[in-house]
Amino acid sequence: MSTLEHDLRGTIDGEVDFSVHRRAEYSYDASVYRRVPLGVIFPRSADDVVAAVNHARENGLDLAVRGGAHSVPGFGTVDDGVVIEQSPREGTQVSQGSTVTITVSTGPRQVQVPGLIGLTYEEAVDALNDAGLEPRRVDVFSERPAGQVTNQNPNEGQRVDEGTQVEVRVSRGIRQVGVPDVLGQSESSARSELEAAGFQVSVTEAPSDTTSEGLVSSQSPSPGTEVDEGATVQITISTGPELVTVPDVIGETRTNARTLIREAGLGRSVVFQDVSDPAQDDIVLDQDPAGGSEADPGTTVTMAVGRFVEP
Predict the structure, then answer these.
(1) Chosen CATH of 244-308 out of 3.30.10.20, 3.10.310.70, 3.30.1490.20, 3.40.50.2300
(2) Any idea where the domains of the chain sit in the sequence?
(3) Is the distance from CB of 194 to CB of 182 less than 8 angstroms?
(4) pTM (2 decimals)?
(5) CA-to-CA distance for 132 and 138, rounded, in angstroms?
(6) Nearest to 108 by CA among 155, 154, 157, 71
(7) According to the model, what pLDDT value does residue 19 have?
(8) How far apart are CA 44 and CA 84, in angstroms?
């Protein structure tokens, strides 16, 4: 490889002035030289244009360098700095002092990348074709509607070589994800699993007769449901069985008291207490727990019932 450090664009007439402002590498092969009758060398690599200019002058010729072209029919685009044409052609008999012109490629034509984001893929392809660019489709999950362009590379407005491939990212819609089963887990465990799967978590509390206090008793959506990634899953944490209000049965007959306690979902037991007043016979004189208090379902309410004993 040799290193070209000269801007070869423009016409050289008289003194040669090469501005050193960029570096580009080209391969070099000695077999590409062609000789004309007067002995001037016409290189196919512009790395040797300086030598060609000097050699031409030594042989009584002027060498003009012309830029602007970038392709050769039948060969396509040619790299910047490569000689693609000469006039007169090699082998032509010319008189001393004649000018030989070589055309140096300025490289591929530069075009501006159009904006594609928000277009359908079909619209993006049309825009790229109009600009002389090639599309490369990449399907991605996105919040944008399916089939819509979400991103592109190179970006809008960049100048690139004609024929450059442009990556076009096309939405597949939002990713669908199955909801994990977190029933029976603690709140912290359930939250960690759901968030790791990409979900938001909402927590409520409610009594449950079947799930121990502090564990997940229900979830919505239910386990295995396919939903949008990032959706919210609501979990309900059990506060244990729902408490019931103990009925106040003091002053009730034993039969009525037993009915009230049973209907409240509570158990009952009876202890008798001797009384000398016949009006208190078979009447509830006391209870534990007290009426109006909260108790777990099935809690036993102990009633003290009067039993008349003659004095």
Answers:
(1) 3.30.10.20
(2) 2-104, 110-171, 177-238, 244-308
(3) yes
(4) 0.46
(5) 20
(6) 71
(7) 28
(8) 7
CATH 3.90.180.10 is held by the domain 110-171: no
For residue 294, give Cα distances in angstroms to 248, 258, 263.
12, 18, 15
CATH class of 2-104: alpha beta
Strands 159-161 and 244-245: unpaired
Instruction: Give the pLDDT confidence of 233-255 residue by residue, as tens digits.
Output: 999 999 998 899 999 999 999 99
Q: Do domains 2-104 and 177-238 have the same CATH topology?
A: yes
Q: Which residue has the tokens 């001797």?
A: 274
Q: What average pLDDT does this structure show over 52-72?
A: 60
Closest CA to 45 of 99, 88, 1: 1
**Whole-angstrom Cα distance, residue 106 to residue 18?**
15
In which residue are the tokens 């009384």 written? 275
Q: Is the pLDDT of residue 31 over 70?
A: no
Between CA 297 and CA 311 the distance in angstroms is 41
pLDDT in tens, 116-133: 999 999 999 999 999 999
Helices and strands: H and E segment counts in the chain = 4, 24
Closest CA to 170 of 196, 195, 192, 142: 142
Cβ(182)–Cβ(193) under 8 Å? Answer: yes
Helix (H, G, I), strand (E, B) or coil at 224: coil
Question: What are the backbone dihedrals phi and psi of residue 83, each rounded to the nearest 5 degrees, phi first?
Answer: -70, 125
DSSP summary character for residue 36: -
CATH, range 177-238: 3.30.10.20
DSSP state of 161: E
